[in-house]
Write a structure and sequence with these properties.
By secondary structure, the protein is α+β, with helices and mostly antiparallel strands. The chain has two domains: 1-18 and 53-83, no CATH class; 21-48, no CATH class. The chain is 18% helix and 46% strand. It has one helix and seven strands; from the N terminus they run E-E-E-E-E-E-E-H. The longest helix has 15 residues, at 68-82. Bound molecules: zinc ion.
Length: 83
């Protein structure tokens, strides 16, 4: 296990959070049954917002890393110390 640099507690995993944006095409359509306009969303997909990635301590919730590689290196350090 490694220690969280913020709270000093032993941790073997991190909380991962990443924001995604939805991106797609919107069209207006007229619904004859209800007599009102609606919106039609199509071709939408999730687009990762890489700059909003956060890897945080599960104990104190402090954000420790923003890059997956950094988080992995930190957790790999856990293996080396317990081996
Ligand atoms: Zn912590």
């Amino acid at each position: 296990m490694v220690k969280c640099p913020k709270c000093g507690k032993k941790i073997d995993q991190l909380l991962w959070q990443e924001s995604v944006a939805l991106q797609g095409v919107i069209e207006a359509y007229f619904d004859e049954e209800t007599g009102s306009w609606g919106r039609l969303l199509r071709e939408y997909k999730e687009v990762p917002q890489s700059e909003t990635s956060a890897y945080s301590c599960p104990k104190c919730k402090a954000v420790l890393f923003s890059k997956p590689k950094q988080a992995l290196e930190f957790l790999k350090g856990a293996d080396q110390k317990t081996a």
